[in-house]
Amino acid sequence: MAKFAVMGAGSWGTAFSLVLADAGNEVSIWARRAEVCDAINNDRENTEYLPGIALPEAISATTDAGEALADKEVIVLAVPSQQLRANLESWAHLIPEDAILVSLMKGIELGTHERMSEVIAELTGAGPDRIAVVSGPNLAREIADREPAASVVACADQAVAERLQELMHSPAFRPYTNNDVIGCELSGTAKNVIGLAVGVCIGLGFGDNTKASVITRGLAETARLGVAIGADPQTFSGLAGMGDLVATCSSPLSRNRTFGEKLGQGLTVDEVSAQTRQVAEGVKSCISVSELARENGVEMPIVEHVAALIAGEMTPTELVSALISREAKHEVGEDSQRTDSID
Question: What residues are annotated to the active site?
Fold first, then answer.
């Protein structure tokens, strides 16, 4: 149906390539390392990130970005969020002028506080009608195993969102369209931070009541910030909001939840990082999200405490105690938007 470039050969980039191939598309994956490309091209498997998953012939891999990007209708960006700017500085001149750019990344850039779509627009000059995001409860291993899943394709241009929806709809993957790029991106970023907090609670030995409380209040924090920066409130109750948050906080397959769990068990950030092959985006995003919230006059106590934990300014036990000991407030109402009366 279309020719795709997927820029990034990690677990999610590879799993999403499988979705695209299952939907009838031709996919060229860009990877940094030749051994990853060799495994995909010769063994039909990404042995490092998705071992045991057979990849169809419609998927090929290359270390040559120009080769991957040439003559592609859709370019999917699947690198770690904090590496996007550096990569696009190298790739921008190779991107076809009419290509649609799709972000699978879930992060807010450190320093600039830009969402990934904003970084894409800045570096490529693409307008909002050419930039889309995919976000939802999409744990890579389950997607690669072709377990039924749904997601959101968000773009300011409804026709582009519908075109991508058609191209991504496989027997096991159901995409829904949305025009709220801001809400989808913020949800995907903040859920990683909340996932860290839930992991800490699990590592400390707390049960489902604690987890459910952190998940629910984390969603409320995310929605408050989202509304402040122009998102549609309804997005946060959908697949990109609650759906992604529940999957991240509930599954041991979640990198962020697992990272937080190890912190709760007493390991340091450096120790957990040394054990982790793939990036837990919330470790960096907690800083940029908390700073973005302060810029917009929105309190996000869970995010702020996770940032303090990552910075070594708070212990896991202190994180949980600080959240519970906060002044009791009304759960909903007009005051929930004010920074002087946030629960």
Answer: 191
